[in-house]
Amino acid sequence: MIPTSHYLVVSLLLFTTGVIGVLTRRNVIIVLMSIELILNAVNINLVAFSQHLASLDGQVFAIFVITDAAAEAAVGLGIIIAFFRNRQTLLADEMDLLRW
After folding, report:
1. Backbone angles phi, psi at 65, to 5 degrees
2. pLDDT at 98
3. How does pLDDT run across 41-68, given as a tens digit for each residue?
4. How far apart are CA 77 and CA 62, in angstroms?
5. I need a surface site. Which of 6, 37, 58, 87 has the fewest CB within 10 A?
6. How far apart are CA 40 and CA 15, in angstroms?
């Protein structure tokens, strides 16, 4: 059986990669993918602690996080497609549409 600490290390690596991607990338698609990495790291933590504590609560929360991530991806991609049709760019620096 794999110890919980191994899962936490993998989760830490995924979370760190996601945060670095959100903070350093300018392309909005990459930023959305990085947010998905962060949510997957949270899911790994939830399931690992659920297994460690012999409870199903973490797995139930992980399913809710997965459905939230799917909804976020669908809405985010719809917004990105609409923005690309208007501005012809996907750079986060160019997204000042709501500014006066």
Report:
1. -65, -40
2. 60
3. 999 999 999 999 999 999 999 999 999 9
4. 22
5. 6
6. 8
**Residue numbers of the domain that contains 60:** 4-92
| pLDDT at 26 (0 to 100) | 87
Regions in the chain scoring below 50 on pLDDT: none
Amino acid at 86: N
11 belongs to a structural domain: yes
Residue with tokens 């949270």: 42
Residue type at 73 in one-letter notation:
A
Residue that is written with structure tokens 């794999």 in the block: 2
Place of tokens 């698609």: 29
Residues sharing a CB contact under 8 Å with residue 18, sequence separation 6 or more, in sequence order: 34, 35, 36, 37, 38, 41
Give me the residue label for tokens 């947010």. 35
In a domain, 98, yes or no: no
Q: Output the pLDDT for position 10.
A: 97
Q: Which residues contact 47 (CB under 8 A, 6 or more apart)?
A: 7, 58, 59, 62
